Amino acid sequence: MATPVRTDETARTTAPSPPFSTTVHVGFRVNDEDVELDLDPRESLLDVLRERLELTGTKKGCDHGHCGACTVHVDGRRVVSCLTPAVQAQGTAVTTIEGVAGPGGELHPVQQAFVDHDALQCGYCTPGQVMSGIACIDEGHAGDDAQAREYLSGNLCRCGAYPGIVAAVRAVADRSEG
Amino acid sequence: MSTETAPPSTVRVDARDKVTGTLRYGTDRVPPGMLHAALAVATVAKGRLVHLDTEAAAALPGVHLVLTHADADELTSGGFLLGGGYGFQSFQPLTGDRIAYRGQPIALVVADTLHVATEAAALVRAEYESEPGAFTLDAPGAEALVQSEAIPLPMFADVVAGDADGVLAEAATRPGAVVIDAVYDHPAQHQNPMELIGTVAEWRSAGDGGADILTVHEGTQNAGAVQHGVATQLGIDADRVEVISPSVGGGFGQKNSLQPQTALVAIAARRVGRPVKLVVPRTQVFHDSSFRPATRQHIRLAADGTGRMLAAVHEVDQQTSRHDLFPGTHTEITSRLYGIPNYRGLQRLVRTDVQTPGYMRAPYEHSAAFAFESAVDELAVALGQDPVELRLANDTDTDPVSGEPFSSRHLAECLRRGAERFGWARRTPEPGSMRADDGSRVGWGVAVGCYPGMAAPTAARVCAEPSGAVRVEVGAHEMGQGLRTAMVRTVAADLGIPAGDVTPAVGDTRALPHHLTAGSWGTAGALPAIALALAELRTALKVPEQGPVDVAAAVAATGRDSVEVEAVYTAPGQPPQVLDRLRAGLPAPGGPEHPGFVTFSWVAHFVEVRIEPTIHRIRVPRVVSVADCGRVASPTTAGSQLRGGVVWGISAALRESSEVDPRFGGFLNASLEEYPIAVNADIGEIDVDFIDTPDPMLNSLGVKGLGEVSMVGVAGAVANAVHHATGRRFRRLPIHLEDVL
Amino acid sequence: MRPFAYAAPASVPEALDALVAAGPDARFLAGGTTLYDLMKLGVEAPPAVVDVHRLPELAVVDTAGPDELVFGAGARMADVAEDPVLLRDYPMLAESLAKAASQQLRTMATVGGNLLQRTRCSYFRGGAPFACNKREPGSGCSALEGIDRAHAVLGTSDSCIATYAGDWAVALIALDAVVDVLGPDGARTVALADLHHEPGSHPERETTLAAGELILRIRVPTTRTARGSTYHKIRDRESYAFALASAATAVALDADGVVTDARIALGGVATRPWRAAAAERTLVGAPLTVDTARRAGEAALAGARPGRHNGFKIELAVRTVTDALRIAGERAVQ
User: Fold this and answer.
1) What is the mean pLDDT of residues B635-646?
2) B119/chain C closest Cα distance in angstroms
């Protein structure tokens, strides 16, 4: 029963025993394209998206799950990519802000509603807000203003665009119900 | 805001890029071959580095460089923004063994990947000689200075009008007169824009035989200071530094000057010969940039029995650092809110062992208005007068400090219109007298605010293309305030062309010299500069001074490929030397006292709080705010900005405090979890309106600033509403649940 | 973050084998919202991690049975929060999940991993220069003489006053939940009430789980009492914050409004999920009124020990219990 790694510096040169590895080959889909990468298991999905795949629409605001700026969808559900080890994306379908507009560039209804309601200022939290807003509607959590506020509270906006964000998400939710 | 709100008729011009994630912020840049950097920071609050062991860090595979004070010889301070330099503080980490505050960078590690850089930074071992420090206003060792003596400059002098102390002493004995005498405490707070501080530095050969050229990509409100500051720090010519910052992910004052990491990253990139990116982690941001200093404000306010304000004294203790004097100008606004003939201000600065504090949205005005507007509410209660009526009765058209007229002051109309929209007439004055259906105690509070109307030298360029398209560039920064939108609207309206034909550009020192964008003067400087450039353009195109222009035809008629003009705007009465400061990346704002007039923006806020039964959580279900910011340049973005200021005020009043454990120095709650800014569920209905009457004097477009005044007074209105709900006066922010239990 | 080796076995037995093989400091990784976060902070530095996030055996939820509710440890908090049976018959469970963190984090985090959520004490998470007996046994506790507004008033010791941060376990403990675990020495069942330690002189020992033991599922005996229940969570913000005080309460009332069964547990004020059995006893046989509810709250906080800045939590928790009992009573089946 071999110990696969050690905490001393020789760990780097000692290959771990199966099933463990310190470089993990991972395959997943990002915005409908296949991606294959060799990952250090320390890498977050956020850093892989931004620094390796150059999908920089997803933002880093805290790196600890406190702000929601890095929100993406994994298999259609919203997560914070900063606390998602990228190795856990194996076999999943990841959607980022770059992947929600239509093939011809037409905005997703939630994106359009953010424009129409001026639900943004500096724009830095906006990709995360949009991803959260889309999921919020899909989940059925945008039924009234109070519910939408609660289920959008995982996305901080320091500019204070909250009223517009709620209005935008609610407008789309109302339309999809109708 | 209800969901029935109709979509605004005008759209923010960069909204599409923002909702699609295609807008590029500073550290979105990923150049080929880029390496990643991470900082190691000091764990003691004050003292000296006696040993720094970087061996383990440097030995880690993938590490390219460990930069420390021992080998950063080419690095010098960029100076202090308020001391003739460029930085948020004069103290530059890695220039010596001094530890001035906990969290101070002591090493920069560069590696192939972010995770290796971060791991290596954690392996840097430091030994310190620790010294006792002072971190709060009252701490032993905190040193208080009288600002006017420590910084003998007119702009930081104490505001004095009439004989406030004499009148106060007399009022204390006059029958019927009322004197309010109270002390208000405001904690340190952090700006926390969502975009982290960070830098991508790249060097390239100029190909001219001269020194290489440095390109800095980072979010900043002051690309000029970054350009000239880094050049100073590295000892190179400023024309060898390019700063690119077209979009800032929120500034709020934090990014208004040179940050300490920029030169470190630039040096690292030069040493390793590859681009380097550093994104400063949120916890480190709490110590690597400025913050709103803690203040204690003593207000004495006298009125006669009819409510006429006779005299006021406003004394402020404001925290600063050991190495810089960050001045306060709290009394600049409290001396102007009302027509008080006798006024004396006093600013004191208290040296503590922190990084230098600095600007944070409404940097002085927010806390000053909380204090003063609380005192005015206390006065209304003592007099048995309605707080709106009391304020209206003390309105003035003339600046009581200078005797000059206000260029525009529609504060009374803000109050009247706000009271009407809010339904203030239904308020019953007795504290605790209003109840909601669920048994919550209801409190209605009002407060006003103002913010100095400043303007800064601003460079603009307009280029008309044969296609009819117009490119407009300004030496200013877009932080979400809607500058690009206002630029496009101004050009489109002037030339009578579709907004889609206008392309705005900001935040690029390759194009124009850039002045600091802060103090709400961004739009108020950019638009007049554009107006000047448009006038030049009309001349160059040989078209009439007014009226729609067929741009394509006019360009064709000149026989040129395109027609480009430049103009520079300066504030009223500013001497030409301010342009030298502009070109040197130094701040040169003018105002609020301009030749022959004084300019402020004005606002009135009406706040409802509800305090639920049993648990007593404080909620803010609705706010009405009416602002006088002159002509509204862009209604959509202005409305958003005013609502955002209200959100800031609520958050400051009820949530935010940067906590200090004096055993350790620095700030304890250095994360977005522990430093609680308002979330969506905290915010109810915010109804905003504008007077929208052009200011006739400040500039040709009649615009005044809005970004900061939006927040001024909100916290006072919240505190006054809490008093109305509970009968209890809170003179310390934030007001927490336990305060009203 | 220190480097670590990663394995993602395909089954529970393989995961257990892998963990044993990796040695005593290896850790299971589920949603990552606690472990990966603390690894980023350097507070946790396991040399090896065994990913159990997607093991299908752990994802099973069965709330339809007559005797017990079964929650596979790997079920996501967001999913369990919307289970129709919970929403109808166990609102305290659904609310304890829905009021935790944010929807993004609830989508990631698992109901098993959440039981093991670690404290949010600033001195624990902050690393150097703060002393923390949890992080480094024997190093001291900076919170004791520090900014302790968020810290515990119940179950504290001279070594640690860190608050147990979770919500779900607080609701579960009130309903006599048990936890099935599997480890190198086989399977066993632990009452949730016996899962967490008080800090005592060993705050680093947070649970009674042995090395290599994996939580497989949580089981809750069915009870009609929970129809009249709530999880009342009081925070510094309206949402997305840890509790200053919380109360999981359930009451059953007879036709005269007399309490026949009561459950009370506290969060945000104690070092572990805190069942207030004595408070429950004060209610049974009495009518549910503001006064009896308040008395129960006071009984729940008996023995609370205030620190420097958190004394308000005692009164706040009393009121939270009082208000939570009101809400539970309004929902109760008579």
Assistant:
1) 94
2) 5
Q: By percentage, how much of chain B surpasses pLDDT 90? A: 96
Q: Is A20 close to C6, i.e. CB distance below 8 A? A: yes
- ipTM over the 0.95 cut-off: yes
Q: Tell me: the pLDDT tens digits for A22-81? A: 999 999 999 999 999 999 999 999 999 999 999 999 999 999 999 999 999 999 999 999
List the structure tokens of B457.
């030298």
Single out the residue of B436, B738, B736 nearest to residue B613, CA to CA: B436
pLDDT per position as a tens digit, B688-740? 999 999 999 999 999 999 999 999 999 999 999 999 999 999 999 999 999 99
Alpha carbons B514 and B586: distance in angstroms, whole number:
9
Model pLDDT for residues A151-163, shown as the tens digit of each residue: 999 999 999 999 9
Please name which of B695, B301, B722 lies closest in space to residue B528, comparing C-alpha atoms: B695
Tell whether B705 lies on the interface with A, counting CB pairs under 8 A. Answer: no
Token readout for B388 is 């709106």
Domains in chain B: boundaries: 26-131+195-249+255-288, 143-190+292-453+596-740, 458-587
Q: Is A106 on the interface with B (CB under 8 A)?
A: no
Q: What is the pLDDT, as a whole number, of residue C135?
A: 97
Q: Which domains does chain A have, with CATH numbers?
A: 20-99 (3.10.20.30), 109-177 (1.10.150.120)
Q: Mean pLDDT across the stretch B81-109? A: 97
Structure tokens at B555: 């360009």
A72 and chain B: CB distance < 8 Å anywhere? no
The size of the B-C interface in CB pairs under 8 A is 76
Check residue C334 and give its pLDDT: 58
Select the residue of B7, B114, B671 nearest A47 (Cβ to Cβ): B114
End-to-end CA distance of chain A: 61
Residue percentage of chain B with pLDDT more than 70: 99
Q: Is B246 in the A-facing interface, judged by CB distances under 8 Å?
A: no
* The two structure tokens encoding residue B80: 């202090």
Distances (CA, A) of B286 to B96, B648, B664, C207: 22, 18, 14, 34
**HEC-encoded secondary structure of B126-167:** EEEEECCCCCCCCCCCCEEEEHHHHCCCHHHCCCEECCHHHH
Which domains are seen in chain C, by residue range?
Answer: 5-53 (3.30.43.10), 226-328 (3.30.390.50)
Enumerate residues 266 to 325 of chain B having a beta carbon within 8 A of any beta carbon in chain A.
279, 281-282
For chain B, list residues whose CB is within 8 angstroms of any CB belonging to chain C.
Answer: 43-44, 102, 115, 118-119, 122, 614-617, 619, 655, 659, 661, 663-664, 668-671, 673-674, 676, 678-682, 736-738, 741
Q: Which residue of B lies nearest to C131 if distances are taken between CA atoms?
A: B664
Rounded CA-CA distance B29/B39 in Å is 19
Q: Is B396 helix (H, G, I), strand (E, B) or coil?
A: coil
**Which fold would CATH assign to domain B143-190+292-453+596-740?**
Aldehyde Oxidoreductase; domain 4 (3.30.365)
What is the reported pLDDT for B9?
43
CATH classification of B26-131+195-249+255-288 is 1.10.10.10, yes or no? no
Answer whether B143-190+292-453+596-740 and B458-587 agree in fold: yes
Residues of chain C with pLDDT under 50: none
B458-587 maps to which CATH number? 3.30.365.10
Looking up tokens 């506790």 gives C141
Interface of C with B (CB under 8 A): 1-3, 42, 120, 122, 125-126, 128-130, 142, 145-147, 234, 236-242, 244, 312, 315-316, 319-320, 322-323, 326
pLDDT at A2 exceeding the cut of 90 = no
Task: Report pLDDT for B187.
Answer: 98
Residue of B nearest to C316 (CA): B615
Secondary structure of residue B502 in the 3-state scheme? strand
Confirm whether B478 is a catalytic residue: no
**Per-residue pLDDT tens over the stretch B543-600:** 999 999 999 999 999 999 999 999 999 999 999 999 999 999 999 999 999 999 999 9
